[in-house]
Amino acid sequence: MAADGLEQSLLDAVRDGEMLDLAGDGPVDEAAMRSWDSTHTVSAALIRDLVRGRRDIEADPHGLRLRGARITGRVDLANITSDLRVELVDCFVPDGLNLCDSQLPGLVLDGSCFGHPEGSHDPPVDAARFTAPVMTMRGAIANADTPSGAVRFLGAHLGLLDCDGARLANTSGPALHAEFLRVDHSAFLRDDFRATGVGEQGTVRFAYAHLGRLACDGARLENTSGPALHADGLRVDRAVFLRAGFRASGAVQLVDAHLGLLDCDGARLENMSGPALYADGLRVDRAVFLRAGFRATGAGHSVLALNGVSVGSLWLDTSGVTRSGQATGALVGIDGLAYGDLPAPVGLSRWLELLRDHTPGYSAQPYQQLAAVHRAAGHDSQVRDILMAQRRDQIDRGGLRRRDRAWARFTGLALGFGYQPWRALLLLFAVLASSVAMAVVLGGPGGGLEHTARASTPTTPCSVVERVGVGLDLGLPVVKTGAGDLCAPTGTRAGQTLTVAGWLLQLAAWASATLFIAGFTGAVRKT
């Protein structure tokens, strides 16, 4: 078809609201597109004229609909406000598309392949500050070598964005640059969506964007020198889905983001140079799901950085969280993590193991938070277990002075850190039993006890009952049986031993009683 005939065919199709299909049943993969000749060629200038309404035709409400075309020149629709809906389906646009500051009633780029001239820093698809109710790029391809991004939505405002199955690649920057993007309903990056980029800006960049929903189920993001998903300050009203085989090579970064819900069930995250999930300061109104085959491998301070996160409910299974290679360090950083419901799906013992063995260092807040939700649920026994575990962790990793550590260990043994005062009572009973046993054994006939002058038979051996009474007097700090007035230690070796042992047992009895009272009243627990 001659160029003039092709142009007229497109004008007729726009007037009639029909799709001009130049590919027919032929292949529309990238290799086929690059081989298309003049029978597929449409000039970018013609498309611009049609969108601007500069051709003498009355466009059908269906708009401009073109399939299988090779478009020569960069399609420049910048700064245009038009009522013409545009569909470029399975088209080859080697010099790219400029939508900056334009406004259209709808844009379809499904299956099209975009590039940019060698040496150009313009993104293949530049939609900075672009406005449209709907924009779709299902199965589209964009290849770039520019720091600006392969596809750029900087400050754009869309009703819906659908990039399901798209392939975006950039060897010098982000694949999808959507900083400050606003999408009223949903942004879809699903169904084997693939993006490859480099650098600290991230492969997919949603920093400070505001979306209704973000669905990346089954997507694959790769960045060897920065985050795979960079979404610091992102706001999502409903939910973020990173499920169903979602894979990220490079960190998923959600620092200070605010989401309705975060679901990463079955996701696989990997970062060889830092956290796999970096979400310090994240706020989630409802729930965070990191379970059901969730896998994360990372390095740095922790694999999952969840410090200062606030969430309604937390579902965290760390069985698939590992350190990369031979890296040493913690699995999770959760200092300041706050949640309203009991964490699931693992039990309390696993949580305590996580806090003790897999965090960067001792911190009181994670234990206090865990205790708070169990206290609210009426689990008083579990609360005691949590607070005792906190105290043990403080002794091991809290940097206490030697003296404070020794005292803490003693109160832990004697009182369960004030949460089990019955231990001091058992110690008192042990002292009492030792006193009675010593008095009975050492005070036998010819031994260390004999009747005093106040007894009816002075200097005679004391009976077993009297020796038991003397033992009780030694082991009881306050109550006395009066046996000591009738039976007293002799000057023999056994008697002297009993006298010295009595002093020590009295001291131990008073100490045990004092500890019991202190633990019972909470004095130790408060310290």
TrEMBL record:
It comes from the Bacteria. This is Membrane-associated oxidoreductase. The chain crosses the membrane at residues 424-444, 503-524. Keywords: Membrane, Transmembrane, Transmembrane helix. It comes from Streptomyces filipinensis.
